[in-house]
Design goal:
With 235 residues, this protein is an alpha/beta fold. It is 33% helix and 26% strand.
Length: 235
């Protein structure tokens, strides 16, 4: 489905990503873990079309999207839930959700998609007319994920969905991500909560200083002494 080869991205003269090879198969839940400033957000934003590719290529469902205009990535079935949610805070929850289904194909299924996301996050049902900015952090994350799902994506890109959330809400969020994946949507998850990310993913990549340092089955990495020492504080 998603196939990235030899990807290189820079900010001016500073290279942020070096020779990244990464793939996500149809129906997979794959996570990318790593320390702060490793390049995780740069990677996921590039896959969403928000950063210019210096070298390498991005292929999705057999189509080369390397030099595709950013606004066309959603049309190809790629939806991003950005870090810090980035909702339209003065607009209602429902208006934010409707913005996710602006493409004609998604718009024709708007009511069906709305029912689906409200089943996934029942807490939103009583908040549809409320300004998105009045919601708690966890509720805003629900809206951000739901807005992306309203586009009816083939792959959902999630950038740090646990950021700033209470531990109990984080568990609910990760259960929702598992449910999304079980419904047939591929997921690429960028996350600093290493134990939870590796606990729900099938495969994982470890990104360090802009390079893939390790990759493999998520459970194997979770049990790796190197990962446990570096990211979980277990010696």
């Amino acid at each position: 489905m998603l196939d990235i080869k030899a990807l290189q991205v820079s900010y001016g003269p500073a290279v942020a990503l070096w020779d990244i090879d990464l793939h996500v198969q149809t129906g997979e839940l794959v996570c990318v873990i790593g320390p702060n400033a490793a390049g995780k957000t740069t990677l996921i934003n590039t896959i969403a079309g928000l950063n210019r590719v210096l070298k390498g290529n991005i292929s999705f469902n057999g189509k080369d999207l390397t030099h595709t205009e950013p606004h066309l990535f959603c049309k190809h079935g790629i939806a991003l839930v950005p870090e810090s949610r980035r909702l339209f805070t003065n607009m209602s929850v429902l208006e934010n959700l409707e913005l996710g289904s602006f493409l004609s194909e998604a718009k024709s299924h708007r009511l069906e998609s709305l029912e689906m996301v409200l089943d996934l996050f029942p807490a939103m049902k009583l908040k549809l007319s409320s300004p998105a900015g009045s919601l708690s952090g966890g509720q805003q994350q629900m809206v951000a994920i739901s807005r992306a799902l309203m586009a009816r994506p083939k792959i959902l890109l999630l950038d740090e969905p646990s950021l700033g959330l209470a531990p109990s809400i984080v568990l609910d969020m990760f259960n929702a991500i598992k449910q999304i994946n079980s419904n047939g949507i591929s997921v690429l998850l960028v996350e600093q909560n290493v134990s939870l990310a590796l606990g729900i993913a099938q495969r994982a990549y470890v990104l360090e200083e802009g390079r893939i340092a390790q990759e493999g089955i998520a459970k194997d990495l979770l049990n790796s002494p190197t990962i446990q020492k570096a990211y979980l504080g277990i010696s």
